[in-house]
From TrEMBL:
The lineage of its organism: Eukaryota, Metazoa, Chordata, Craniata, Vertebrata. GO terms for cellular component: nucleus. Belongs to the nucleosome assembly protein (NAP) family. Residues 50-60, 195-214 have a biased composition (Basic and acidic residues). Residues 61-81, 397-428 have a biased composition (Acidic residues). One of its GO terms (biological process) is response to yeast. Its main location: nucleus. This is Nucleosome assembly protein 1-like 1. Keywords: Nucleus. Residues 25-85, 191-214, 397-444 are annotated as: Disordered. It is found in: Nucleus.
Amino acid sequence: MYMSAGGGISLPFTAIRAESFFPGTSSLRSAASPVQPPAATRSITQDSAKMADIDNKDQAEIDPADMEDVEEVEEEETGEDENSKARQLTVQMMQNPQILAALQERLDGLNGSTSGYMESLPKVVKRRVNALKNLQVKCAHIEAKFYEEVHELERKYAALYQPLFDKRSDIVKAAYEPTDEECEWKIDEEEELTDEMKEKAKLEEEKKDEEKEDPKGIPEFWLTVFKNVDLLSDMLQEHDEAILKHLQDIKVIFSAPGQPMSFTLEFLFEANDFFTNTVLTKTYKMRAEPDESDPFSFDGPEIMCCTGCTIEWTKGKNVTLKTIKKKQKHKGRGTVRTVTKTVPNDSFFNFFTPPEVPENAELDEDSEAVLAADFEIGHFIRERIVPRAVLYFTGEAIEDDDDDYDEEGEEADDEEGEEEADEENDPDYDPKKDAVPPAECKQQ
């Protein structure tokens, strides 16, 4: 993922793997690898909420500049202090010429440098190289057409998937009771149980069913999915859970044929006490053609911006804001007043008020990180969560992600083994140097 010259975030956006068309193609990178929670995920909740200050009317004539804080009655806002200290430390470091020089040297090493061969070529050869670059631009435009057709395929197969997803939703919200045949699940050979164990398990399940009331559908289905996925659970707060228990379905809606490429996430809620909306939406707009100013940076469709929706909160139920009370003492008079302030609050529902992307303006690093995190979350919900929700509910998809990590660990172990073998084959290798000295014996 990276910011392109045009200001978009390049993502492995499509659910159709490029390898299924052209083995070895890397432009459509697979999203099957686990996505780790980005550090900027929490920043979304800070940047997207709006601040409102509410002072007591009876003391509005007092100049706030003459007041000093005495104590905070309800909460301490330590996050801003920590961020302020971190920014001060960063500024101090950046003012140190030695640190700047070391950082620049490291960046130069990362960027690499050309061999100088191109500059040494005769003019006639450079002219031919320019012809190759023009061919490369044409390749980029053909690649853009490829991704447009992939998007058309996604739209086509989304229509085939949707009836299955609708039935899944009906089962979750108890609108449809599956038949015995639909509930039958073949157990893997490794999971085969003896008749005695099956009977014991059946009795235990019957006992539990007698103790509990008959639940409707699959309670807390989507909340459990969110809590099982690190990328999403990091956004959840305790006050969000009561709301997400009312989430009945998530849908992915693709842009219509002939319209600019985009997709919309629809979160469908049953009637609840928190807001009047039945659907919350988040739309991601994409660009699938090379940027004319930098065509060689094209690496597939880029998410350019996203728009949320307005949540119609019930009075007193808005979890994206919190109210704090602070006591302030007048510097001259010594009088004390209580000030009530409404400040941003961490919440998953800040996801629906993303930061705006300014037109024709470069983003600072913080804004870029926030948008990158937002885009990655939207992409992950579209690509993994919606198509495989039941596997994230049961935890099986999490186990698959863990297996991916184990494979990487095994590769690392293999590399270490190869290094050890190289040391043994080295004629100058002295094993005595690596030997651990024995511990001294203590007399009893």
